[in-house]
Write a structure and sequence with these properties.
Rossmann fold, 16% strand, single chain, globular, binds NADPH dihydro-nicotinamide-adenine-dinucleotide phosphate
């Protein structure tokens, strides 16, 4: 089970789903592949990269500490990716995983700070667009190269949840944005993957801070009854989907559907 010789960029790679995906992907990539882990936490990235280098000596594993809510963060990530050696590259995989929940202790009518809304959208929507477009320019279409773009999404992209105004809006916008990419670029394989509720820092934030008590209780119960999705299983499913390459480009695929 190999993904071949890949160059892969993973945003939000310091913990949670992104880190799990990196570890599994490193095990599936052929020697000569290169992997770039991106997040803001320099120390954590440095440590994880060292571990991956020891485990997978045939891979080029790199990190960039970048705040993807800023233009500078996006630019530095693109530069670092372009500098990674790729040799006879078979696959480019861009995994737009980084994300934030926003202030879920607020309901719609409490959201009056336009700057805060713009900051949320800059990170969760604009940076995913500009990072992906810039990376696709850095690795242009050529025969023998498959370019894969992953949008890590959520059920919140298609269903409204009380007190999740920004999160739902951001995920919905991203789904549509990546559907347009699939329409425009026939050679690019675009997968929008919803990984299911996993026990990460984001999930804990939802469980503790969500304004809507009914919804918060659902998350508390899921955790208590062990019903959260196993992060390893979800990451494996996503990589299996990329590898099998049978999905319709642009589609939203949910963990529970496959
Ligand atoms: P976590 O909050 O655990 O991790 C988020 C990651 O994003 C971290 O690596 C964090 O690193 C990085 N990040 C946050 N802000 C920035 C920033 N400004 N610039 C660069 N990187 C940043 O989230 P999960 O692992 O739970 O979620 C991963 C993805 O899966 C998200 O897109 C989320 O919406 C989605 N998802 C999660 C679900 C869940 O139940 N957990 C359910 C459905 C979807 P650092 O702080 O070092 O920057």
């Amino acid at each position: 089970m190999s993904l071949g010789r890949v160059v892969c960029v993973v945003s939000g790679a310091s913990r949670g789903f992104g880190l799990t995906v990196c570890r599994q992907l490193a095990a599936r990539a052929a020697p000569g592949s290169a992997l770039l882990l991106v997040s803001r936490s320099e120390e954590t990235l440095r440590r994880e990269v060292e571990t991956l280098r020891e485990r997978c000596p045939g891979l080029g594993v790199h990190w960039t500490a970048a705040d993807l809510s800023t233009e500078d963060g996006v630019r530095r990530t693109v530069t670092a990716a372009a500098e990674m050696s790729s040799g006879e590259l078979e696959r480019l995989i861009i995994i737009n995983n980084a994300g934030s929940l926003g202030n879920v202790s607020n309901h719609f009518v409490d959201i009056t700070d336009m700057e805060a809304v713009n900051r949320y959208l800059a990170f969760n929507v604009s940076s995913a667009l500009c990072l992906t477009s810039s990376l696709l320019k850095s690795f242009p279409k050529r025969s023998g190269l498959q370019r894969v773009v992953i949008n890590v999404s959520s059920l919140a992209a298609i269903r409204a949840f009380k007190s999740w105004t920004l999160y739902c809006a951001g995920k919905a916008a991203r789904d549509m944005m990546f559907r347009v990419l699939a329409e425009e670029e026939a050679d690019v394989r675009v997968l929008t993957y919803s990984p299911g509720p996993m026990d990460t820092e984001m999930q804990e934030e939802a469980r503790t801070l969500m304004a809507d008590t009914e919804q918060r209780q659902i998350f508390i119960t899921m955790k208590k009854e062990g019903k959260l999705v196993d992060i390893e299983v979800s990451a494996r499913k996503m990589l299996d989907i990329i590898q099998s390459d049978t999905y319709k480009s642009g589609d939203h695929v949910d963990y529970y559907d496959v």
